[in-house]
């Protein structure tokens, strides 16, 4: 019976709706993130917003505060879903690994001072990006040379294009296809924190005018103070993260590149100027996913996927590959012996 791609996928992702939504292996952390957003909003709407609604005697301002809170919260949750349930830019595993090249390996020599030719792939190769040579690495798990700015996420076990980082709060990698929604999520969360903090402070001010002292106002609405403290603490996290990613967008860097190459002088290959960098993130069209997880896979693709081990070799072809490697080594050894014999005859 034919199976769909998500059923035989070798990454650690979790799928729902028959592969239409893809999450990271730590998708359960989304529950915590949802509670951190929804619970304070419910407290705000049922206490602070209601007090302000009574304070304004049903004025339009009371309705506006409640409606803005609900609509903006839905917007934040939608951005969270777009970030965590979307393919971040996963590069499919290679069904046809590149051919091994004959390289000389000094660690596997027959005689002292002699090198044995052994078939292996170079660990890196250079590609030209914007006229600058960039070194890309070979991924033994996905059996491909990673595209520029691509990295293998050890949490999801996938190569992700323009890999930024793996975010446990959204339970997903942040990459080329969901970076925009991720930034909008954290920046919108920052605005929501500021809004709830300001309205809660306004509620305390109105209660102070009614009861005469701040202490009595706090006793009348302690949840307003709790929300102010909560938003102040949370604002340091999401606000700082928003500012950091504003810097990354302006310089066209990723979190991974910033911390990996910290203190290392390297050319800014991808920086096209602040304005163009922002246009690239917010105005460019999001590329379609390379994977159709809902589609059926062919029998040979299923065999490859099932047989793939953690080293990136095909299980049912592993014996043949080893035989090929051994044959190549024997051929190399024979060539070396013939060369030694000719040198001895010449001498």
From TrEMBL:
<protein>
    <recommendedName>
        <fullName>S-acyltransferase</fullName>
        <ecNumber>2.3.1.225</ecNumber>
    </recommendedName>
</protein>
<feature type="transmembrane region" description="Helical">
    <location>
        <begin position="182"/>
        <end position="204"/>
    </location>
</feature>
<dbReference type="GO" id="GO:0005783">
    <property type="term" value="C:endoplasmic reticulum"/>
</dbReference>
<feature type="transmembrane region" description="Helical">
    <location>
        <begin position="224"/>
        <end position="250"/>
    </location>
</feature>
<dbReference type="GO" id="GO:0019706">
    <property type="term" value="F:protein-cysteine S-palmitoyltransferase activity"/>
</dbReference>
<keyword id="KW-0012">Acyltransferase</keyword>
<keyword id="KW-0472">Membrane</keyword>
<comment type="similarity">
    <text>Belongs to the DHHC palmitoyltransferase family.</text>
</comment>
<feature type="domain" description="Palmitoyltransferase DHHC">
    <location>
        <begin position="137"/>
        <end position="260"/>
    </location>
</feature>
<keyword id="KW-0812">Transmembrane</keyword>
<dbReference type="GO" id="GO:0005794">
    <property type="term" value="C:Golgi apparatus"/>
</dbReference>
<dbReference type="InterPro" id="IPR001594">
    <property type="entry name" value="Palmitoyltrfase_DHHC"/>
</dbReference>
<keyword id="KW-1133">Transmembrane helix</keyword>
<dbReference type="InterPro" id="IPR039859">
    <property type="entry name" value="PFA4/ZDH16/20/ERF2-like"/>
</dbReference>
<dbReference type="Pfam" id="PF01529">
    <property type="entry name" value="DHHC"/>
</dbReference>
<dbReference type="GO" id="GO:0006612">
    <property type="term" value="P:protein targeting to membrane"/>
</dbReference>
<keyword id="KW-0808">Transferase</keyword>
<feature type="transmembrane region" description="Helical">
    <location>
        <begin position="30"/>
        <end position="49"/>
    </location>
</feature>
<feature type="transmembrane region" description="Helical">
    <location>
        <begin position="61"/>
        <end position="83"/>
    </location>
</feature>
